[in-house]
From TrEMBL:
<keyword id="KW-0805">Transcription regulation</keyword>
<protein>
    <recommendedName>
        <fullName>Transcription antitermination protein NusB</fullName>
    </recommendedName>
</protein>
<comment type="similarity">
    <text>Belongs to the NusB family.</text>
</comment>
<dbReference type="GO" id="GO:0003723">
    <property type="term" value="F:RNA binding"/>
</dbReference>
<dbReference type="GO" id="GO:0005829">
    <property type="term" value="C:cytosol"/>
</dbReference>
<dbReference type="InterPro" id="IPR035926">
    <property type="entry name" value="NusB-like_sf"/>
</dbReference>
<dbReference type="GO" id="GO:0006353">
    <property type="term" value="P:DNA-templated transcription termination"/>
</dbReference>
<keyword id="KW-0804">Transcription</keyword>
<comment type="function">
    <text>Involved in transcription antitermination. Required for transcription of ribosomal RNA (rRNA) genes. Binds specifically to the boxA antiterminator sequence of the ribosomal RNA (rrn) operons.</text>
</comment>
<feature type="domain" description="NusB/RsmB/TIM44">
    <location>
        <begin position="38"/>
        <end position="161"/>
    </location>
</feature>
<dbReference type="InterPro" id="IPR011605">
    <property type="entry name" value="NusB_fam"/>
</dbReference>
<dbReference type="Pfam" id="PF01029">
    <property type="entry name" value="NusB"/>
</dbReference>
<dbReference type="InterPro" id="IPR006027">
    <property type="entry name" value="NusB_RsmB_TIM44"/>
</dbReference>
<keyword id="KW-0694">RNA-binding</keyword>
<keyword id="KW-0889">Transcription antitermination</keyword>
<dbReference type="GO" id="GO:0031564">
    <property type="term" value="P:transcription antitermination"/>
</dbReference>
Length: 165
């Protein structure tokens, strides 16, 4: 069996590991995710990569667009360009919504970038705030630590309460 024929399934609790099987197992991309959720997920990927590699957000976005597979959704571009334009303001809002003993630097990278996406949507989009929080919490549950969903829920609840009209 060649390496390209090896098909695996994620090991429960360890999405970075695959259980190898001789029988092909179809891999269905998160079919349960809506188009907007998939756009947010791709924005999270781009934000995470740009921060990890200390690269410009728009340059990283443009590289993803140039690859073309899979295509980058328009909503993903709006999120990334919006965050890039308002990054200082967004990070300030996140810092203000954190408790006194918790800083942005202490936040896991996934949580910090989910907060950036959500704050941008709360402050700069027409999406209902409750839907934004729900999406961020769901993505944190899927991709971050056990405590992340509750933490983000509290942070974003504060952001909604302190939102400027």
């Amino acid at each position: 069996m060649s390496e390209s024929e090896i098909v695996g399934t994620p090991v429960p609790g360890r999405p970075d590991l695959l259980k190898i099987s001789a029988e092909p197992v179809p891999v269905v991309p998160n079919a349960h995710h809506s188009t907007r959720t998939k756009a947010r997920k791709k924005a999270l990927d781009i934000l995470f990569e740009a921060e990890l590699r200390d690269r410009d957000l728009v340059t990283t976005l443009d590289e993803y667009i140039a690859l073309g597979e899979p295509p980058v959704r328009e909503f993903t571009s709006q999120i990334i360009r919006g965050i890039d334009e308002h990054m200082g303001e967004i990070d300030q809002r996140i810092a203000e919504c954190c408790s006194a003993d918790w800083t942005m630097e202490r936040m896991p990278r996934v949580d910090r970038n989910l907060a950036r996406i959500a704050i941008w949507e709360i402050d700069h989009s027409e999406t209902a705030d409750a839907a934004v929080v729900s999406e961020a919490v769901a993505l944190a549950t899927e991709f971050s630590t056990d405590d992340s969903a509750g933490f983000l829920n509290g942070l974003l609840a504060t952001a909604m309460r302190t939102k400027q009209a």
